[in-house]
Amino acid sequence: MRKPALYSPSSRAGTSQPDAGARPGESASANAVEAPKRGGRWSRFRAGSSRAAATPRVMWSAMALLAALLAASVWQGGVNGTKALTQKDIDAAVLRTLTTQNLPSRAARAAEKIRPAVVRVMSYGKNSEGKEVEQGVGTGVVITDKGIILTNLHVVQSAQSVRIVYADGSESPATVTGAQPQNDLAVLQAQIIPDDLIAATMRSTNDLVPGEDVVAVGFPFGIGPSVSSGVISGFDRAFKSPEGVQEIGNLIQFDAAANPGNSGGPLVTMDGEVIGIVTGILNPTSHRTFVGIGFAVPIESAASAAGLPPF
Q1: What CA–CA distance (Å, rounded) separates 108 from 124?
Q2: Catalytic residue (one of 43, 123, 154, 229)
Q3: 203 or 27, which is more confident?
Q4: CB crowding 272-295: b at 16 or more within 10 Å, else e
Q5: In this structure, which of 44, 185, 204, 253 has its CB flanked by the most CB atoms within 10 Å?
Q6: Tens of pLDDT along 97-146?
Q7: Residues 33/238, Cβ–Cβ less than 8 Å
Q8: Is the confidence at residue 33, as pLDDT, over 60?
Q9: In angstroms, rounded to a whole number, what is the distance separating the alpha carbons of residues 228 and 296?
């Protein structure tokens, strides 16, 4: 039986934005400007189940196990009359293990932790012959184990049907159950939910600062899941795509590579915790390619779109 999502106190809430019906579009040339300061506080939401990943705690557990084995060896050596190992020998063995093992990078561990919660989002429409055809591919992130998924509104807007592909390759139809147009956000409900579905952990952006390492996971140009890493470049940014009449404010600026198809995907910390939903990229030319400036809606706003407490 799956556990319900849990939630614990933390900090900052995002700045509210005026309602607007038009979608902001994907990614193209736009002007980035400063938006009002963020304020308030919010809370961290944690999924009820999580998957083990390579973490410092796991590493130290392995070290403790190694130390225990070495201690047993010391005892056995004393019994058999052979030379017992000293603490110095044990420390040297642990250090040798750490320096000779190729441990995953922090970005790799973050990507591995979020991977089970990342889904491919495919929207479908009808062609002139009335046949269903794929009209777009984006990314989504599972935020509860009941199959609630966050993505960008422009990924599913005007779609006649939506399907998602889970990390294990299984598929499900999905319905749009909510939208927050002012932040280009949509909430999906999967119709088929795997028994072992793992939801992402969401983290407040309140104590983050420019320069923090982040990872973006998604399906750029439909390829993926793909992982890119970078840093937070700034906060409280505003973005307006040339296709839309609406400007989105209170955005996180980041420089982890993102391209069309990354839309709706998670921006995560090195702990694999979601701090934003990727929504657009800035390019001063007419090309829809990444030049180093991406934007994400803070998770405070994104979670409120799904009606998660305390928003």
Answers
A1: 33
A2: 154
A3: 203
A4: bbbbbbbbbbbbeeeebebeebbb
A5: 185
A6: 777 777 789 999 999 999 999 999 999 999 888 899 999 899 999 999 99
A7: yes
A8: no
A9: 14
> Which residue among 145, 184, 236, 255 is the active-site one?
184
Interatomic CA distance for residues 147 and 131, integer angstroms: 28
**For 240-293, what is each residue's pLDDT tens digit?**
876 666 789 999 999 999 999 999 999 999 999 999 999 999 887 777 789 899
The catalytic residue among 27, 172, 241, 263 is: 263
Mark whether 287 is an active-site residue. Answer: no
In the annotation, is 184 catalytic? yes
| DSSP line for the chain | -PPPPEEEE---BPPP-----S---SSBS---EE-PPPB---EEEE-S-------HHHHHHHHHHHHHHHHHHHHHHHHHTSPPPPHHHHHHHHHHHHHHS-PPPHHHHHHHHHGGGEEEEEEEEE-TTS-EEEEEEEEEEEEETTTEEEEEHHHHTT-SEEEEE-TTS-EEEEEEEEEEGGGTEEEEEESS--TT--PPPB--STT--TT-EEEEEE-GGG--SEEEEEEEEEEEEEE--TT-S--EEEEEEE-S---TT-TT-EEE-TTS-EEEEEEEEB-SSS--S-SS-EEEEEHHHHHHHTT-TT-
> Alpha-carbon Rg of the chain, whole angstroms?
23
Question: Domain 6-51+112-305 carries which CATH code?
Answer: 2.40.10.120
Domain ranges of the chain: 6-51+112-305, 56-103
At 47-71, the pLDDT tens digits run 444 444 445 555 655 665 665 666 5
Percent of the chain with pLDDT over 90: 52
